[in-house]
């Protein structure tokens, strides 16, 4: 994916495929317009050079990290980034020389590139901006850059760099780190597959037969092909759950006929509006995210989301019908039955593709990513062997076009990942929520402001991060005001979708323009005719929630003025990030929801540290993986871009394999046995090893014993596990333990796990009780076995770079308060586990407590595999600690 994103992004830049806005340029005189074009290319040279230089530090720091399965240096994943950015700078210089002459080329080479190198190495002092100024400057740069025609991906990068340089919040290594992580999302893997499948269908004669059949059915209707686009998006949204994949799947197939019949801008606008509709069609990733971080049931959202999506589809369909009334060219004569029959016969095999994809997912044969890969193979078979419409040469051109188009999309996602990180670190979403609370108890203004807030944040942040941050903050407020949390969650998801596909700034809108191959300006003009439909939809959804209220609060004039003033000041809503002034502000990122014991313990730690240092240290907490998943958080702790977190041994063993000896299966007897081992000799052994890698271990916190769920049968003996398809994380210890019991291990990304369980792609999964409970796996599983096969704990870890900034007294305070917070987390999880097991049983899970001795007896193959990875000496040493702890 990183190769596609960065090398493909460079190829796309050479071809002129990157999305940009030329509204302002088109209004300027020719000389000023040429200056803006030269400035845009010069800024591309600057940004590419900046990222290339900063990426070397990231690669060097991650070279010792190993990939989970192949054990290759993790830095290899980042290698395409400096190569791609070097190509980008080279192509931008060629464009400067070709289009703007030697002076522009010299300016780019002698000014932009050296300045970028000096900035990347922090050798040019930046003026210190205090308070809200850094984020205001960054946002201003973002909007100005877009309006003057800089490609959107580079605007995002430059705005992120502006904030980092102006605020001193973190080093520029954040940029390459977040970019690489932004392309590593497993869900995005479906995007290039769907694009390739769509292009194969288009160029291999498949889509021609498919669209011809559709035209015989609806071609005589007003806006027939646009109607097909809307309802195709409704169906395909239920296939992948990912909006970029949905847009790619439908847009690449329908593009040429829509361009001929209605024009590319109109097609991009309808595609964007229909993609907003798809946000609430299950299995929407947005609904899975909200369900996993709040108390709202995922199953209820899946059911409840179908009606709003259907209403949106009908509204769009009606609007298409009305708007196409006067377009005589958009209609064709009604086809005869014979014509329909002939077209249907020719479309049987093409129709089998979406039918097979739908059946494959709904019947549990494969995940969305896997069916996208199958679509490519099926399309190749039809194009080459059945219709003979694709040669080797045309296939190679198709692959190149796929790489370029995927490169544009993935490069934007990568750049948006860094921009989202910046806005989150700047506490912008949280401050916006505080402003929203100024509405008092008025449900009406709260609902209106929520929609506005999610649209604005959806424009600035990539959609899912905005939900990650805002949903846990807003849903409890909605519940206290008497709103249905289920309905409110759906409104948030729809509003976020509107923001993500907003013309000129929404990332999703650029995706639609890239797919339809049209310029942003004309698509924005076309979209303006559809935005009223989106607004009506959002308003209707909000009004639907109001109908469930028994009464409405009245808002007095003072509250209205106060709230309006708050909204007007939304762009100034950022925390104090003063450089060299005020308290030392540290970032604490972790995986857990805000009601999870880990977050409660983190809040106690932050509060007590602030109190004991008399306010000299302030710790901002970022829950719900908003700054990246656990592996990315471990990377950021090592680099110092976040100050502390809660990695497990599974994340730390990528840096030193001694940590891999700790999660041995079936070695601990009880929590007390665990604590004696991990807090004693084991900690004294591992802490110095971690410090050599840039990690300061403060204290073992808690995560819990992992247990097994499935939907097939109760587990009372090892034989009951045999043959079950079990999802595990990509950690050798857990995979080896399940395979030693005869399970068929499958690696599925955690965001796709609920969907995979519900569609029977896998039979079961294994996790601590708290994870099973908070992620609502009880909705899609029938049996819970308390196997307690592997113990995981969170290790409260501080970056060595941050640790050096603390005085000895502050370091001692950190260690002491980490012990108290860890004890709180252990106590909370221990007390809650029995209650959660009882609740899971009450929710329908059949709970079994098997004898673990027969399970332990089958672990020898697992121990040997773990020893081969962690080192025999390390495993033997840890097992000695285990025995010492057992006999203590």
Identify the overall geometry.
globular
Rg over alpha carbons: 28 Å
What percent strand?
5-15%
Average of pLDDT: 80
Alpha-carbon distance between the two ends: 50 Å
Which structural category fits the helices and strands?
A: mainly alpha
What can you tell me about this protein's structure?
With 888 residues, the chain is mostly helical. It is 65% helix and 6% strand. It has 41 helices and twelve strands. Strands 5, 6, 7, 8, 9, 10 and 12 form a seven-stranded mixed beta sheet that branches. Strands 3-11-4 form a three-stranded antiparallel beta sheet, sandwiched between helices. Strand 1 (584-589), helix 28 (597-612) and strand 2 (617-622) form a beta-alpha-beta unit. Helix 11 runs antiparallel to helix 12. The protein starts with a helix and ends with a helix.
Topology of this protein?
Elements: H1 2-15, H2 23-27, H3 30-62, H4 75-78, H5 80-120, H6 133-147, H7 152-167, H8 174-182, H9 190-203, H10 206-218, H11 224-240, H12 243-261, H13 264-277, H14 285-293, H15 298-323, H16 337-346, H17 348-362, H18 368-386, H19 392-425, H20 428-436, H21 443-460, H22 463-480, H23 485-500, H24 507-516, H25 520-528, H26 531-546, H27 557-568, E1 584-589, H28 597-612, E2 617-622, H29 630-639, E3 644-645, H30 649-652, H31 671-678, H32 681-692, E4 695-700, E5 704-710, H33 718-721, E6 725-728, H34 732-740, E7 744-747, H35 753-758, E8 764-768, H36 769-774, E9 783-785, E10 791-792, E11 795-799, H37 800-803, H38 808-842, E12 846-848, H39 853-856, H40 860-870, H41 872-887
Parallel strand pairs: 1-2, 6-7, 6-8, 9-12
Antiparallel strand pairs: 3-11, 4-11, 5-8, 5-9, 5-10
